[in-house]
Amino acid sequence: MTGIIKVDTIQSNGGTTGLTIDSSGRINQPTKPIMSCKSDNGATNLTSTGMWWRDSVNGGTTFLVNQGGITHDSSDGKFTLPVTGIYRLEYHSMLLGDGSQVQWRWLKNGSSTLLRFIGRGVDSSNWTPFDGTFVGSFSAGDYIQQEFTQVGLTYDVHGQTYENFSIEMIG
Q: Which end of the chain lies in a sparser environment, N or C, as judged by fewer CB atoms within 10 Å?
């Protein structure tokens, strides 16, 4: 037996809309967990190890998108996930420094390393882009932190429009 189900809105029993489909077939998920942010500092000189996304380190965090319940604690840099699922994490920035390196690690629940990536400054006159992407399974209440470690010389990490961190539930 074949059939067609015609629906333009899917709601929970409580009335919250979880999905809409417009007349062209475009899907909107207004409660899907997704966030995108950048730091407020233009450039931050880092000389040690610590947690990024803390106001005391990066000068504050501006959210470009934040829906679906991902929360951020600016005192410890934690991003807490609201529901169990598969998430994609992405980070993009630029590094300035002659031969300097920065090691970034995404930590799950404060200890488990999800991904380690290194940016390396080419010289002290030109910004060098670096980025990292990770896809993995998380449970509701898990949190993510982004740790930085200065390796070698001091360096500057660019913020504002040259930096972006995003978390998106993809499954």
A: N
